[in-house]
Amino acid sequence: MPTTNDNLVEVRGLRKWFPVQKSFIERLVTRQRQFVHAVDGVDFEIRRGEVFGLAGESGSGKTTTGRLILRLVEPTEGSVVFDGVDIAALSGEEVRRMRRRMQVIFQDPFASMNPRMKTGDAIGHSLEIFGVAKGEQKKRLVLEMMEHVGLTPARILYDKFPHQLSGGQRQRAVIARALMLHPDLVVADEPIAMADVSVRAMLLELMVQLKEEFNLTYLFITHDLATAKYICDRIAIMYLGLICEMGTLEQVYRNPQHPYTQALLAAVPVPDPHARRTAPLPKGEIPSPINPPSGCRFHPRCPFAMEICSQEPPPLRPVPDDEGHLVACHLRS
Ligand code: SF4
Fold this sequence. Notes:
With 333 residues, the protein is α/β, with parallel strands linked by helices. The protein has a domain at 253-333. 31% of the residues lie in helices and 21% in strands. It has eleven helices and twelve strands. It has an eight-stranded mixed beta sheet, sandwiched between helices. Helix 4 crosses helix 5 (135-148), helix 5 packs across helix 7 and helix 7 packs parallel to helix 8 (197-214). It starts with 6 loop residues before the first strand and ends in a 6-residue tail after the last strand. The structure holds iron/sulfur cluster (SF4). Residues 258-259, 296, 298-299, 302, 304-306, 309, 314, 329-331 line the site of iron/sulfur cluster.
């Protein structure tokens, strides 16, 4: 087991329930409050210098988990410890200072950039906010970072507005912005999902290269296991607010234990036309997180479901003889 010092982030019993907004009539008819169980009790660590992946379908809770770690939303229960400090215990000013060490790359670079702010000003905005640099000094630092992330010719692109950049350039601008304060942790939420297929590989390579140069730790959130395979060191598979499998990339991809992981991996396109798929794809839609299924949340879609599966939730347990590999499935007990 790693020491606490090896872990940059420790997540314990993290839970986030959002209240369901009801109309006036609905409130009259039923007084019972309902909640979306977005994240329902997850535990994991992110070790210094690693790329930790959170993967799953839309609605699995991975993005909310990332936002909880950044304290962009408050948890219903549980804790997030960042570099030994429980972030829930921090005051507003302390959170602001902590944010300097945690940055985020959102999925949609267009939506996350101010359309009225020139690219260079947007990238360097945090330098001014945190009193690091302004004026010519800020411009020099921004131009250096733009060159670093391949946003060139930097002097010309500095004065462009976001709508004048290509999708790939916008994503490089968002990456540059995230790195201006030299953070320890970058939460990358589907960072290449909006980019053209032709530039995705380049952006991933850039992220890998920047991680080494800036000594970064990534939380890499994705629905795409093919992308996660390229960049992650360890990965957790989420389903309906819970982690169903976790381990190193090798453990999870070479020896998937959970039927959901097996199905997700079976759905990854294979470049070999002769390759055969063996695992069945999950049937049906992901159930509602307002009333998640009893027992194992995957049981309505699982081809191997047994009687116990609808009755008892399987705990996340170590896979025998495979240290660090965890799975939550009654088949493996
Ligand atoms: Fe399938 Fe049961 Fe395992 Fe859930 S616990 S994944 S329903 S076999």
